[in-house]
Amino acid sequence: MNDTEEDIVRKRRKLSPEEKYQIFIEATMAKAKGNGSITEVMRRWGIHSSDLTRIRAAVEEGAVTVFKERKSRKPKINLEQYEQLKAEKERLEATVIEQAAELALLKKKDRSG
After folding, report:
1. Helix (H, G, I), strand (E, B), or coil: what is residue 90?
2. Do residues 54 and 43 lie in contact, with contact meaning Cβ atoms separated by under 8 Å?
3. Domain match, 45 and 19 both
4. 3-state SS track over 2-51
5. Mean pLDDT, range 38-59, rounded to an integer
6. Which band of pLDDT confidence, cut at 50, 70 and 90, is reported for residue 10?
7. Least confident of 23-27, 30-34, 59-63
8. How many angstroms separate the first and last alpha carbons of the chain?
């Protein structure tokens, strides 16, 4: 192979996830415009149509996976943790009630003395 042939043959480069997503966005926009510039997007990025097909499939699969995940606003704790927290809450509430009663007694003594 001489130098001119090596210049023509492109070396395969690894695209980052961000670049692949950018390719997806550009190709989607080109398709929406309907002016056939998808070929231009592929040429600019140096990819083949099979690469674009794989990128699209990966984006769709990722989106479906994200939407399938059930997300809750409440943090999940196990039953044992819940019971411990509940017992601690009840203990603290009892302490607050005791201290409020003691404070009331002290205030009453202070006023009478």
Report:
1. helix
2. no
3. yes
4. CHHHHHHCCCCCCCCHHHHHHHHHHHHHHHHHCCCCHHHHHHHHCCCHHH
5. 93
6. low
7. 30-34
8. 108
The answer to whether residues 17 and 62 belong to one domain is: yes
pLDDT at 78: 86
Highest mean pLDDT among 71-75, 95-99, 102-106, 109-113: 95-99
Based on the fold, state whether residues 39 and 85 are members of the same structural domain. Answer: no
The verdict on residue 2 lying in a domain is no
Number of domains the chain is built from: 2
Residue numbers of the domain that contains 23 = 13-70
d(CA 15, CA 12): 9
